[in-house]
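Reviewer 2 asked us to include a model.

Predict the structure of this chain.
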Amino acid sequence: MSLQPASTDIATRAQSVIDEFKGLEGPLLPILHGLQEEFGYVPSETVPVIADALNLSRAEVHGVVTFYHDYRNHPAGRHVLKLCRAEACQSMGADAIAAQISQALGIGFHETAKDNSVTLEPVFCLGLCACAPAAMLDGEVIGRLDADKVEEIVAEVRS
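Predicted model (structure tokens):
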């Protein structure tokens, strides 16, 4: 199956990613990781192409994309801020940090700011329990969050 002509660039780039990983044993997750890296999300129009390439149903591919929280099926903001919601971070004040960030950005979890500056996502453990509460901004971890660090993060994503 091919993609519609309007998405030729997506089709070409997606096919390149699929070709790179399709020879691996269990290639679906590496393909999805590759697409996520290439586009910042897994475009819905690539699902049938992946399904055909791997002899899977569209439902199977869609199910994997929607099951794993790290895969997005729509573009994120320019910045992605992930706040740890695990118990260690919660016990160190993560709920108050989350409320402060949410109020400052004007968005909740799983939302993107109207100006597309930032997407806010929950994550369940960044492995920084000794530095709780923790967050990850664009792949960079931030430990020992406090009100001052929150102000710095908000300023960075708004710039």
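Confidence is low (pLDDT under 50) at residues 1-6. The helical segments are 8-21, 28-39, 47-54, 58-67, 87-91, 94-105, 147-158. We have added this to the supplementary material.
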